[in-house]
Each structure stands twice: as structure tokens, then as C-alpha cells.
Amino acid sequence: MPEWTIQNLLPAAAPPPLEPDRGGYTLTMRECSGAEDVLQRLQSSGADDPRRAHVGWGSFRNLDIAAARRSSWLLLLDVNIHQFRVWDALRTALRDPAATDGAAFIDLVLPLLPTQPRLRQFATSTRTWLTGDLERPGSWLFAERPERFAWVRGLFRGCRAAVGCMDLRGAPGNDGDPFRSMATHMAAAARDGFVDLDTLYVSNIPWMLAQDLGFFGESHSVYLRQGASRVLDQVHANLRAVAPAFRQVVSAAHLRPDATSGNLQWHTEILSPGAFLDDAYWTPLVPLTSA
Q1: What pLDDT, on the 0 to 100 scale, is given for residue 1?
Q2: Closest C-alpha to 130, from 99, 105, 148, 151
Q3: Cα 141-146-151 angle, rounded to 5 deg
Q4: Cα 22 from Cα 69, distance rounded (Å)
Q5: Kindly report the CA angle at 72 between 43 and 68, in degrees rounded to 5?
Q6: Count of C-beta atoms within a 10 Å radius of residue 218
Q7: Which of 3, 102, 148, 241 pairs with 177 at a CA distance of 20 to 30 A?
Q8: pLDDT for position 111
């Protein structure tokens, strides 16, 4: 029987990624509020567990969490083909013997990162953008905590990190139920002792999918199931299928109180799966024009 890996959690057939005119992320943007406190709270103080898993959508925040929790498995999910190119670049750089620390990794990854379309970043220089994380206390690249970088590097070198295309709206054209399939795989892996599903990161995706258009200005209509009126209800249902299996959820689904339409900022928090899935958490998620 082939050796189990976290890739086995994914449905057998995944939809192709979207090919938008917007680049992928490296560092997490506009979710700073609460993030450092969350990462501090996530610091693992117990014994390492070879089954402990982190699953999440988005950017390097997933690596921050995996480093803090000392996750032994890592599954990175997205829908943007350019984000998968970012992960390909990261994997190649981390597997290079010259990647001895965070600074060396940045030197190696810079020429590998996709540039068309431009990476989404708040700096003209990608080097400046990334090297700032060498000084950020919660970062997996924080120079004063080199063991974090070494831990993440070990996941990629040890084939314990995988990527997959999973759209929280579900499959376009109602082609199957990928989240129910994933939930089945998760339950089997946990039952058989392969994995301990520890942390789930959803970034600000629930808020984004409450908006009238999708991530890249696309219509949600192709994702709507028969009789459904809001794609957000499907997002909620899809997460109901998988989130309860995790110990905790890291979410930035709500705007900061001082956020404005011209300066969107989200608040990062840790929730139990029950609190995250509660209707009270989802009711405030509305299109910006209705807020």
C-alpha cells in the first residue's frame, strides 16, 4: 500500500485553478490586526506530534501558523494558478542546500517568484517586502527564531507539504461535492491514525465571498447550486463539512472596526470550530454596499 501523505485528503478530481490577471501572495496583506497575538497564542509548548496537521488557504500566514504549531503536515489550498506558482518557487528555494536561513531563502526565492501578473504586495521591491518579515516576531522568517524557518524547510524537504485547488464556493457547474469528499478522506485518515487535524486557516475568504463578485471580479453564478440564492451559504455549508474536524480555526472574516471601503483591513482571530461555524459569526458577512 502506498505511504500516506496529506495529499490524500484532497478529492480525487479537483477543478482546474483560475487564471486571473492578479498575481499571487507571499506575505499576508491587510490582516495584521490581531495576527501577532494569535501567533503567540498558537505557540506549541507540548511534545511534537508527527500527525499534527495544518490546512489553509492563502499566503505565508499558513507558514507562520505551521511554524508556531510545529505542524508535521501542511496542506496549502488556493484557486489562483499564480499562487501555485508562488508555492512552486518556495518549494524549489527551500529544497536548495543553500537555503540555510531566512535571509538565504529570500535570496534564492526572489528570482523564482512569478512576476506576470505582478505579485500582490505593499512595496515596489519584492526583496524589501519579504525582508521585513525577518524582523516580524510572528513570522516563520523571524531571524531571532531560526528554528521556525528550519521547521518549515523540513516540511518541504521531507515531502510533508502539499498543495491543492479547492474553491470554497464548491465545484463550478455543481460538478460533485469536493468538500464532502474531503471530509470523508479526513475522517478516514484521522480514524486510521495518519493525521491529527489541528489548525485550519481561512484568511478573509468568507468576507470576500460575501461580496457580489468573486475574488477576481468573476460572477458567482456558475457556482450556485439549484435553488440557492447566495454563494456565501454554500461557503458556509462547505466549511461545515470540514471545519469541525479541526482543533481550532484561524479566521480573518470580519473587518476591523475602523476599516473603510477605501482602506479595508481585517481582524485575525482564533475560534473553536463551533464558534466559527455559528450563524452569529456569519450573519454580519454582507456585500460592502450593504454594510
Answers
A1: 46
A2: 105
A3: 80
A4: 31
A5: 15
A6: 13
A7: 3
A8: 98
Ranges of H-type helices in the chain: 35-41, 61-69, 81-95, 102-109, 126-131, 146-157, 178-191, 205-209, 231-242, 273-277, 279-282
Q: Is 261 exposed, middle or buried (0-12, 13-18, 19+ CB in 10 A)?
A: exposed
Count of C-beta atoms within a 10 Å radius of residue 287: 12
Residue 131, helix vs strand vs coil: helix
d(CA 206, CA 203): 8
Retrieve residue 163's grid coordinates: 498543495
The rounded distance, in Å, linking the Cα atoms of 5 and 194 is 8
| Residue 290, pLDDT score | 59
- Residues 178 and 237: their CA atoms lie apart, in Å, by 12
Backbone phi, then psi, for 33, in 5-degree steps?
A: -55, 120
Q: Does the model's pTM come out above 0.90?
A: yes
DSSP state of 152: H
Chunk the chain into consecutive blocks of 10 residues (it has 291) and report each block's average pLDDT, rounded to whole numbers. 89 90 96 98 90 97 98 98 98 98 98 97 97 98 98 98 96 82 97 98 98 93 87 96 98 96 96 98 90 53
CA distance 253 to 206: 6
159: alpha, beta or left, given left = phi > 0 and alpha = psi -120 to 50?
left
Distance of CA 148 to the CA centre of its chain: 18
Instruction: In whole angstroms, give the CA distance from residue 291 to residue 286.
Output: 6
The DSSP result for 222-235, as a single string, is GGPPTT---HHHHH
